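If you are new to this repository, start here. Below is one unmodified record pulled from the training split, so you can see the exact layout before writing a loader.
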Amino acid sequence: MTSSAKTSLLFVGTYTDKNESEGIYTYRFDTEIGSLRKLHSGPKTASPSFLAANAAGTVLYAVNETETGEVTSFTVDPADASLTVQSTQKSMGIHPCHIILDRAGKNVLVANYTSGTATSLGLGADGSLKPGTTVQQRGTGPDKARQEAAHAHSANVDPSGKWILVADLGADKVFVYSQNSSGALVPHMDKTISLKAGCGPRHLSFHPNGKFVYVIGELNNTVTSFAWDARTGTAKQVSSCPTVPTGFSGKSYCADIHVHPNGRFVYGSNRGHDSIAIMKTDGKTGAIALSGTESVRGKWPRNFAIAPGGQFLLVAGQNSNHISVFKIDQITGNLTATGTDITVPSPVCLLFVGAK
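And here is the target side for that same chain:
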């Protein structure tokens, strides 16, 4: 894909059910100065709330977060980055909310929230979607309104590529899988990672050294760090910290989490407090501690992304219909708003592709 040495494509997934969204929006982001330039919108597809791309950046994948549950693939034009619908398959669950490719790039892995299922869909040689297989997760938690059943919220591949970790908000667990020769998920219940009751694990992120994994809890506003053993696919808890300041008494729900490429900082989004939590982590022990929060200058930051090169952090304000850009201090991890805000209807996923 054509791209200058200082830019990256940014694909933005949105909700389309209650607004004028065109579906997926495409921008060019300058990774040195932090500017955004709109390239395209559409083609419209139903609520593409989470996105993934193949390693070459030639095919984009989107979940369609609906009751019928689908996944759509798009080819990316190498000249102008425009999207063309390539294929569609059922997600084999209700309200798919997260998608990622496995390490081999031969399957897409999907978390279906309402049905609590994890799905693996095969890919053709051209990247098109094939029918797949699914696994039903089970479990409940103390929050009777949100944890009455399993609710798979994200599918993640560990750095070794051997293990698939699926965070389940309803079960207060992260389920661990491997894949068989056809790419189907194989459960390993003895390796299941348990979180504090009522935590509601939503997303997770690995340290660049591959030795630690950080799990964000939507319901109790925490991040829990674990020592990760890629050889055995097991985790041991190291520490936990809040994502909101001491004394905050309002309603807030965590969403996304990312470790900075330098391995020194972990960031998490707070919906309600409407901030990004800034946490410092020890690359030797995995211990984590909150160092501060930064207002997102908007509402309901469901998703955010660290730009290639690690200089900028972009936040999607779902309820304020905008994306804001922050400069990252490489020494402290603190965030400074650049003033580069753009309007996008209900943005809920930010995906950088094709940085060079």
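Two things worth knowing about this chain: The chain is about 0% helix and 55% strand. The mean pLDDT is 96.
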